[in-house]
Amino acid sequence: MSATDAIPSAKGPKGLARLGAEAVSWLQAAPLTLVLGLFLIFPIVTIVIVSFWDYSEYALIPDVILDNYTYLLSSPVTWSIFLSTLGYAAASWVLTLLIGFTVAYFLAFHVRTLTWQIVLFMVCTIPFWTSNVIRMISWIPVLGRNGLVNQGLMGVGIIDHPLEFLLFSDFAVILAFVHLYTLFMVVPIFNSMMRIDRSLLEAAADQGASAWQTLWSVIVPLCRPGIVIGSIFVVTLVMGDFITVRLMSGGQGASVGVMMNNEISLLQYPAAAADAVVLLAVVLLMVFGMLKAVDIRREL
Amino acid sequence: MSDVTTTKGPLTATKDASGTRVAGLSRRGLLKGAAAVAGLAAGSGALTGFPTIWAQNIKNVTLRQFGTGVSNQNAIAEKVKEDLGFNLELTALDSDAVAQRAVTQPQSYDIADIEYWICKKVFPSGVMQPMDVSKIKNYDKIAKLFITGKLTPDSVIAQGTAPHTVGFVEGEDSTTFADAPTGWMTMIPTIYNADTLGIRPDLTKEVSSWADLLDPDYKGKASILNIPSIGIMDAAMVSEALGEVSYADKGNMTTEEIDKTIALMIKAKKDGQFRAFWKSFDESVNLMASGEVVIQSMWSPAVAAVRSKGIACKYQPLKEGYRAWGGGIGMAKHLTGLERDAAYEYLNWYLSGWVGAYLLRQGYYSACPTTAMEFMTADEWGFWMDGKAAEGEIKAPDGKVMEEPGAVRDGGSFQERMGRVACWNSVMDENKYMIRKWNEFIAA
Q1: Residues B156 and B231 placed together within one structural domain of the fold
Q2: Is residue B135 located within the same domain as residue B278?
Q3: Residue-wise over B202-222: b if at least 16 C-beta within 10 A, else e?
Q4: What is the C-alpha separation between A220 and A211, in angstroms, rounded?
Q5: pLDDT of residue B422
Q6: What is the four-CA torsion angle of B35, B40, B46, B51, rounded to 10 degrees?
Q7: Overall average pLDDT of the A227-250 stretch
Q8: How far apart are CA B103 and CA B340, in angstroms?
Q9: B157 and B245 share a domain?
Q10: What is the SS3 assignment for B323?
Q11: What is the domain extent for residue B361?
Q12: Are the CB atoms for B198 and B288 separated by under 8 Å?
């Protein structure tokens, strides 16, 4: 939809002024429309189209077949992969929310001066100065069979045998997710908390509310937009991830992203596209559900 | 395999429209420019009909070679420049990517450095040209393994895609593999080896069979490589050794055999047998060196890499035999004229000994052992080929000490190792099904 299409169809001969105003609106909307159309709509449409194609070992064959979807939806393996991906997302969400909320609460209500709030907030972001992959890989010598944790625990005498579940396991995957994504929870929740009028807290105290009651009945409800925004970040990032799962599970864990990565490396683009379409639908549903639960526009 | 010959769609190979090829730098430059845009066919098509000008100077030629990392080593390109005067550009990719690129982007390379099982997929699609045996000077010295398939006249031919079965075609324009040696070779064999399991002898008991990979003693300490076409062979060696599955031909399994093999692997995975799966050389080295894994599929140089860290690691010979693989170099269909001459010169140089010795020093085998011998010391030859104890230090090509005096190669001599090949890396008729099942194993 470009601006030029729209102008001739602009209704009403009433005057050039109106036409001009409408044209200006179209023109103003055009850049964003163009950018979104080119970089969002077009790729997604392409993926949807390719997901119906057939493929051989070396070629994509334009066609309309439902094979990719029937295999995807009928195979117990893909179901279990989607389930395990959802499991990762749920566990990471709960943990990042708890930790993120606590950190934000501490920053917003316990740190009194703005300077210290800024300093501590910067401290939270320091790990993000290195790359994702580096932060993940650095867990490996820590958690390994002969890693720091196991050596430490064995040195102190708490365990006799190294703990195997620490590395190349679901535990390791979720740990890495929490490590990588908690900040995405901290930032929006902190932002919401800073907007809370402090006199509300005083009013609650005056009415005899305990600290827990204030937290639960005043702060949490007012933080809901921050929580939802943080949740959307964490859930979508975890659902689409493949490298964390691959590295931290030692290639044994399964997520939709890993499945797609495998398919792409074997030139099975249509199968990967079908996965992507289904994943997109699932994630959109989740985001839709979250936005239904909290009306961000009204509360922000 | 019919899939390959009937390629359609956007990733399909662009047929070479250039016809005759004019030598020289500008021509190459033009082609490269043209290759960068989608209108490749149109671009090079426009150049046909120019008079063929033979540049006298072969130094202007650049051959672009791509393949897996094993033999795509810069030292080889440097030596080519020194010995032959022309340029060799190398691109290293993983096996899957190599197979894809060989077929889908035939204009992007002049020399394909691929494994024989990849050749079985690639050659029938018509993107490569066979080589005239009469132009290969050392043809007679090529190991018989690649000609007749037999190391010694009474050896049994192993299962899988044995190199000699895809080593020849009927004629110059043929894409059908010949049953017996003809005058047209698909690839010049360059490198091959016998693969087995790597173990940490300090952390395992005696290992003698592929079945030991699933030994409950190594629960949570085993690993297998996650490259479907190779991993499935290791899995098959294990299943067969356990007596759980019997195969008519491990290199070409039926869907039922694939199902049984994968079911066994999934069960082992669910029982927690595997610590990790690896995809790259480095991963396998790290898993072994850190002690996360004590028994796994491994490649020969990875064993050497672990050992060079001062950690005991053994490339354990197993009673069921080895899984072998072989690689070679072939010419792209579009090579003509001076560039083809340069390619032949390169192939002949490859077989003339220096590269053979270079690869032998890394633990691979040379396809022309007798020429490689001239480039090695008697001690090196004794260690790598004859299975004798090293008299002095055995050094890698970069000068790093690999073995101390007195060391003996794991598995022994060339005859002992290559003579006990149980199957070759291969591509199956049920390849697509196998890959799907393999992915289920990885995801299970």
Answers
A1: no
A2: no
A3: eebeebebbbbbbbeebebbb
A4: 12
A5: 92
A6: 40
A7: 93
A8: 20
A9: no
A10: strand
A11: 57-192+324-371
A12: yes
Average pLDDT over residues A12-21: 63
* pLDDT per position as a tens digit, A197-207: 999 999 999 99
* H or E element, residue A205: helix A198-206
- B296, B223 contact by CB (below 8 A): yes
Q: What is the pTM of this model?
A: 0.77
Contact B9 A80 (CB under 8 A): no
Question: Which chain B residue shows the shortest CA-CA distance from A82?
Answer: B443
* Interchain CB distance below 8 Å, B290 and A145: yes
DSSP B355-406: HHHHHHTTT-EESSHHHHHTTS-HHHHHHHTS-PPPSS-EE-TTS-EEE-TT
How far apart CA B431 and CA B406 sit, in angstroms, is 45
Contact assessment for residue A175 and residue A166, using Cβ atoms and an 8 Å cutoff: no
Q: Are B324 and B194 in contact (CB under 8 A)?
A: yes
Q: Report which of A143, A135, A148 is spatially closest to residue A164, judged by C-alpha positions.
A: A143
In one letter, which amino acid is A196?
A: I
A130: which DSSP letter?
S
Lookup result for tokens 């997109």: A280
Contact criterion met (CB < 8 Å) for B11 and A145 = no
Given a cut of 90, is residue A136 above it in pLDDT?
Answer: no
- Residue in B11, B104, B309, B441 to test binding to A, most A beta-carbons within 10 Å: B11
Same domain, B244 and B366: no
d(CA A84, CA B258): 25
Which residues of B fall below an 8 Å CB-CB distance to A?
3-4, 6-12, 96-97, 99-100, 103-104, 121, 125, 220, 223, 226, 228, 269, 274-279, 283, 287, 290-292, 431-432, 435-436, 439-440, 442-444
Average pLDDT over residues A219-225: 92
From CA B61, how far away is CA B23, in angstroms rounded? 8
Q: Kindly give, in sequence order, each residue whose CB lies less than 8 Å from that of residue B226, ignoring residues fewer than 6 positions away.
A: A251, B277, B278, B279, B442
CATH 1.10.3720.10 residue ranges for chain A: 75-299
Q: What is the DSSP letter of B151?
A: S
Q: Which residue has the higher pLDDT, B432 or A226?
A: A226
> In this structure, are B178 and B205 located in the same domain?
no
How many residues in chain B? Answer: 444
A28–chain B Cβ distance below 8 A for any pair = no
Residues paired with residue B199 on neighbouring β-strands, in sequence order: B295, B314
- Chain B closest-CA separation from residue A36 CA (Å): 25
Q: Is the pLDDT of residue A6 over 60?
A: no
Q: How many domains does chain B have?
A: 2
Residue of B nearest to A262 (CA): B439
Q: Tell me the pLDDT tens digit for each residue of A278-291.
A: 999 999 999 999 99
Q: Do the Cβ atoms of A190 and A259 come closer than 8 Å?
A: no
CA distance B1 to B121: 7
- Closest partner CB to B7 (pick from A56, A164, A250): A56
Q: What is the pLDDT of residue B12?
A: 35
DSSP type of residue A300:
-
Q: Which CATH number fits domain A75-299: 3.30.70.270, 3.40.50.620, 1.10.3720.10, 3.40.47.10?
A: 1.10.3720.10
Distance CA B44, CA B392 (A): 56
E strand or H helix at B234: helix B228-242
